[in-house]
C-alpha cells in the first residue's frame, strides 16, 4: 500500500507519470508502482494550451476531472467537460488536446 501527494499544477501543460509497472521502471522513479502492465498519468493543462496524447497500449481511458477540452485526431474531434471520459484503442495513436479552460485530467494506459 502506497500513498503520495501530487500537485501537478506546479508543472502544467505536460503529462506526469504517477503509476507505473514494477518491471522496467527507471531507478529514479519515485511515484507509485503497480504489478500490472498499466500506466496512469495526470496533467493540468492551462486554458488555450495544447497537449499531445500518444496512445501506446491497447486500451486507453482519458477522464476529465475538472475543466473543458477538445481532443482531435486523424479520425474525429470530441469535446469533454468535467466528469466526461473517452475510451480509445492504440489505433488512434496520436491525439491533440486543446484546453478551453484550465483542466485537470487523468489518463489510464491499459493492456
N/C terminus separation: 22 Å
Give me the strand/helix succession.
EEEEEEEEEE
Total number of β-strand segments? 10
Q: Radius of gyration, Cα only, in angstroms?
A: 14 Å
| Uncertain segments | none
Largest beta sheet: what is the strand line-up?
Answer: 2-1-3-10-5-8
Largest sheet: 6 strands, mixed
What is the helix tally?
A: 0
Beta-strand percentage range: over 45%
Helix vs. strand class: mainly beta
- The chain-level mean pLDDT equals 84
* Helicity range: under 10%
- Overall, the morphology is globular
Question: How is this structure best described in words?
Answer:
The mean pLDDT is 84. The protein has no helices and 10 strands. It has a 6-stranded mixed β-sheet with strand order 2-1-3-10-5-8, with no helix packed on it. It has 111 residues and is mainly β. A hairpin with a 4-residue loop joins strand 6 and strand 7. It is globular.
List the main descriptive attributes of the protein structure presented here.
111 residues; mainly beta; four-stranded antiparallel beta sheet
Summarize the structure.
The chain has strands at residues 16-21, 32-34, 39-45, 50-54, 59-66, 68-72, 77-81, 85-89, 94-99, 103-110. By secondary structure, it is mainly beta.
Amino acid at each position: 500500500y502506497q500513498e503520495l501527494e501530487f500537485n501537478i499544477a506546479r508543472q502544467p501543460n505536460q503529462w506526469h507519470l504517477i503509476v507505473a509497472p514494477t518491471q522496467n521502471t527507471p531507478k529514479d522513479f519515485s511515484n507509485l508502482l503497480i504489478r500490472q502492465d498499466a500506466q496512469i498519468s495526470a496533467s493540468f493543462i492551462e486554458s488555450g494550451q495544447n497537449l499531445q496524447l500518444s496512445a501506446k497500449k491497447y486500451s486507453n481511458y482519458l477522464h476529465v476531472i475538472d475543466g473543458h477540452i477538445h481532443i482531435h485526431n486523424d479520425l474525429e474531434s470530441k469535446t469533454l467537460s468535467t466528469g466526461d471520459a473517452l475510451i480509445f484503442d492504440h489505433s488512434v495513436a496520436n491525439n491533440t488536446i486543446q484546453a478551453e479552460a484550465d483542466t485537470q485530467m487523468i489518463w489510464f494506459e491499459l493492456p
